[in-house]
Amino acid sequence: ILKGQRYIYSTRLSGDSEQHQGQYYTVPPSHFHTVFPHGLPPRYQQQVKTFNEGCVMVRQPALELISHLKRADYSKPTLRYLLYGVKGSGKTMSLCHTVHYCSTQGWLVLHIPDAHLWVKNCKELLPSSYHASRFDQPIQASNWLRNFRTTNENFLSKIKLRQRYVWTKRESTEEGQPLGELVDMGVSRVKSSSDVVGAVLKELRLQAGGTEGGFRLAVAVDGVNGLWGRTTLKKEDKSPVAPEELTLVHNLRKMINNDWCGGAVIATLSQTGSLYAPSSAYLPQELLGEEGFDSMDPFIPVPVSLYSEKEFESCYLYYLDRHWLQHPHSQTEEGKKELIFLSNRNPSVLERLCAFL
Amino acid sequence: MASTSGLRTTLSKMAASLTGLLKPWTPRVLLVRWSRYNPYYLEPEPRKEVYHIPETELTPEQKEERELKSVRPIKAATNSVTSSVFNDPVLSKFVNMMMKDGDKIIAKGIITQTLENMKRKQVEKYHKAPEGKKAEIECNPYAIFHQALENCKPVIGLASIQKGGKFYQVPIPLTDNRRRFLAMKWMITECRDNKHRRTLMYEKLSQELLAAFSKEGNVVKRKHELHKMAESNRAYAHYRWW
């Protein structure tokens, strides 16, 4: 039973108008498998499965990003947006909201779910065939290509390659072939998948701002501070691998550079998956380090704060409506005050508290 | 008043009835694990409602109690006591029984994961059920936990009594505490022993609790077997002398 009209959820809400701040909008179920094969936080995925629907709260950082994207000039070099905030304040969810908006507007979305996954826990590290001192990561690259294919089905046949790529003595991809073939080749030939990723990124970068058949490119990277820093990977002689020596990281850094036009780069900082960073660090300077900050500079910082009172109310009413808050005391005023006290209005802490209450 | 050394010797063998001689003191050697306070110390009051009653509405006993509390020292509250509205004594007991090596954080974590798991399964069923069936599905994990525990509690127990050189299993009545203890113990041992090697504790526990809620599963089976044994040993019931 809704006490106030603080929260409305319906498919009619488009999710990008200012007056719906604090309210939830539903992502249509068909979009979940296409737009988000990877990239949603795992607890949110569980929540979508339990409630049988996916609702995202419209919050101020996402609205700010969307308004910037609407008004930006796409003939100028790309603008880079950086979402930062304390742990659990909703950076990844804001990123996913923006990614959904971009895909509804018909942009090509390049979503890297977590850059930290590429710099740690890699079982297979092959020396790269293209460049002698670099290393390939076949499993991560082929996984990402598969998800990329699911996200951007309709673009794969439209974009044609502008260059000839030679993989081995007998295999090459000619120019003029559709991008889909390149991606399929990367998925099937796992050994050269990292180089395929590099080729795909290069093609998209060249063709994004084009006037004939031009599309807009959104590069969404979560945990961008993993690209500059240290890795936990080791070479065969036990010496540490620097991030530059990984093909995937090298190509992604070229993507984040603002020397191309016709799109936007939206990035999130993340302390959760980061390596060798203290747990209290959340500001861009601390997490990106010297090198990262210099490469990302100039960027537009977007701070993500904890829930305001109105947003907390909205979240609380949403959980009540979905029958998630089951403890009899959690539905009283006193229980609500206790929830505010225990969670300090932090979105992820509140979610974890309400899970067992 | 007696001298201090004489007072100390009497105090060391003291019974609670000697309240007249009691004075606030702490022994030289403080026991930390199992706290043994001087009976002079009063119990702490963790509930918030007691302190919100305004002055005018207090009964004479409550006024007397408040005056006593302002004079006497009070024991330190244990870590498991909270003034939170979400505090549940039965659940705290279950957490303590699940705890190994004093690691309450892990035990509490397992229980919260269990409650979350149960709630997720039930809420998913609720949202997928047709309109008519929605009211029958119980989504509250605490209600399910309490009901499941009730369904596992045995009504009658067996005691081993020796008569004429032989030991007989005699049916005896059980106290409430004993019944609750047996239900919890059976639940925990069942979940620890009879499961697949790779299932986690919270997963198995949530399955067993949901089964016990609908009166199926191994724990209620064990309760029924105990009842059958007691029924079959009815003839020896007169061996009980208390």
UniProtKB/TrEMBL annotation, chain A:
Single biological process term from Gene Ontology: apoptotic process
Subcellular location per the Swiss-Prot or TrEMBL entry: Mitochondrion
GO terms under cellular component: mitochondrial small ribosomal subunit
GO MF annotations in UniProt: structural constituent of ribosome
InterPro entries: P-loop_NTPase, Ribosomal_mS29, Ribosomal_mS29_met
Primary site of residence: mitochondrion
Keywords: Mitochondrion, Ribonucleoprotein, Ribosomal protein, Transit peptide
UniProt family annotation: Belongs to the mitochondrion-specific ribosomal protein mS29 family.
Protein name: Small ribosomal subunit protein mS29
From TrEMBL, chain B:
Stored InterPro entries: Ribosomal_uS7, Ribosomal_uS7_dom, Ribosomal_uS7_dom_sf
Any single biological process term in GO: translation
Keyword terms, alphabetized: Mitochondrion, Ribonucleoprotein, Ribosomal protein, Transit peptide
Database matches in Pfam families: Ribosomal_S7 (PF00177)
Keyword Ribosomal protein: yes
TM spans (from-to): none
Broad class of the protein's primary localization: mitochondrion
Domain Small ribosomal subunit protein uS7: 78-234
Subcellular location(s) per record: Mitochondrion
GO cellular component, one term: mitochondrial small ribosomal subunit
Family: Belongs to the universal ribosomal protein uS7 family.
Name of this protein: Small ribosomal subunit protein uS7m
